[in-house]
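Re: that backbone. Tokens:
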């Protein structure tokens, strides 16, 4: 007997109780014995057939063991076991939920999700840590990846484009730690970000002009600040007759463009062989006749190859980096160049950075979960052995009379310095500056106002 007494559980809370887990575990063992009797035949069943089989077996198990639960609760157990046998168990509903951005598992009974940038604890739970490992290994099996004591860390791309990171004991002290980053199947367009309040119309026009006129842009920000989403959106501004090569550690970008070649780095085997780094891919991408090279994120020695690409005819390239401010972004690039074994002087490195980059777009996630562009900064050159910058826009929120926080981007009244935007700069000046509601005409018939949305 699994339980005594006549305790009944409500439909909403039952699935989150320990008793539910106990009943499910016992029913699961019963199902395994029945599946063993069926042998190879079970492996050929469709999900619908498995679901029908589970419902019949669970109902019979509950009657046989006299488990005091009602019909609705029996259905909850059967549905959960169907997902266990034919899907991804407790993860299945979270992966199917379009509002979920991140799934974070800290041991079997601690599951958190991020929705709209805000983390909340989920009632979903696993039976034990072995249950987590069983589900994770089911995800990894078709990817050809292993997870055991010899390889206790795994970073992999899911078939739907999401990213999975797992670290297990002995490195994870309190049980398996699983992080799943989900990505939208339909990338956000520039107009979507505008409607969501990530930036205003003036910044949208500036970014459109910068991308179309082949300015090199680096998007800087913290974890889960929206760097990849912004990079995807900027790709909408790239003319359709250009060839883009993307290079990523784990493929996350989904550029809405007709001519994209996607490259993904490869981790080594358990013996360390077979590694193909981002740096290797960037070097190879330059032999693939790209008009633009887009690197998902620079975090190591590949920063030097990215700078070389930007300085050798591949203008209009873009990348992201982890940094808390535009100035910190430049310092981090210098630090990464040092890790890459850069042998030149500090002055020559800074000159190379200044000549390669045109704009730094700083994006951040606010305390309320909203993602906003915090700064648009232009690289203007060198002065006194320091990379010179000028901030064009700065995010400064304010509290309205009703006590509500409102977004506001302050234009510092400075026009872009780069010759690439000379035509646009002249138009802005003639029409009253970048804050003018009149949009500058697109170059060559392109631009945000004359191309696809």
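Recovered sequence:
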């Amino acid at each position: 007997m699994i339980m005594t007494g006549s305790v009944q559980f409500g439909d909403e809370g039952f699935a989150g109780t320990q008793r539910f887990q106990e009943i499910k575990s016992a029913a699961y063992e019963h199902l395994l014995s029945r599946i063993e009797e069926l042998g190879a035949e079970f492996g050929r069943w469709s999900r619908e057939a498995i679901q029908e089989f589970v419902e019949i077996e669970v109902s019979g198990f509950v009657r046989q063991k006299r488990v005091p639960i009602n019909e609705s609760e029996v259905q909850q157990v059967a549905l959960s076991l169907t997902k266990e046998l034919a899907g991804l168990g407790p993860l299945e509903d979270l992966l199917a939920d379009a509002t979920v951005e991140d799934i974070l598992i800290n041991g079997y009974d601690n599951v958190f999700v991020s929705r709209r940038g805000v983390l909340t604890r989920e009632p979903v739970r696993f039976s034990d840590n072995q249950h987590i490992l069983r589900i994770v290994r089911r995800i990894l099996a078709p990817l050809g990846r292993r997870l055991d004591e010899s390889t206790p860390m795994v970073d992999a791309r899911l078939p739907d484009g999401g990213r999975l990171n797992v670290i297990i004991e002995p490195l994870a002290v309190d049980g398996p730690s699983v992080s799943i980053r989900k990505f939208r199947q339909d990338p956000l367009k520039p107009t979507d970000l505008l409607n969501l309040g990530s930036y205003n119309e003036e910044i949208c026009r500036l970014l459109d002009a910068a991308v179309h006129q082949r300015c090199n842009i680096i998007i800087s920000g913290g974890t889960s600040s929206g760097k990849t989403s912004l990079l995807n959106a900027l790709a909408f501004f790239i003319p359709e007759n250009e060839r883009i090569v993307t290079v990523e550690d784990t493929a996350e970008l989904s550029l809405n463009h007709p001519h994209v070649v996607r490259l993904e780095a490869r981790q080594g085997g358990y013996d360390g062989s077979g590694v193909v780094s981002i740096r290797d891919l960037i070097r190879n991408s330059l032999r693939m006749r790209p008009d633009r090279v887009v690197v998902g994120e620079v975090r190591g020695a590949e920063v030097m190859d990215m700078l070389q690409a930007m300085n050798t005819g591949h203008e209009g390239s873009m990348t992201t980096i982890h940094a808390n401010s535009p100035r910190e972004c430049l310092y981090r690039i210098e630090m990464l160049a040092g890790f890459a074994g850069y042998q030149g002087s500090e002055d020559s490195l800074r000159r190379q950075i200044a000549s390669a980059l045109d704009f730094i777009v700083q994006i951040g996630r606010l305390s309320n979960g909203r993602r906003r562009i915090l700064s648009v900064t232009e690289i203007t050159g060198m002065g006194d052995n320091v990379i010179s910058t000028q901030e064009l826009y700065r995010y400064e929120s304010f509290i309205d009379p009703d006590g509500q926080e409102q977004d506001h981007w302050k234009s510092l009244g400075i026009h872009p310095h780069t010759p690439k935007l000379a035509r646009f700069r002249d138009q802005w000046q003639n029409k009253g500056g970048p804050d003018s509601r009149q949009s500058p005409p697109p170059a060559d018939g392109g631009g945000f106002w004359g191309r696809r949305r």
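The chain has three domains: 11-86, 91-181, 190-445. The first strand starts at residue 100 and ends at 106.
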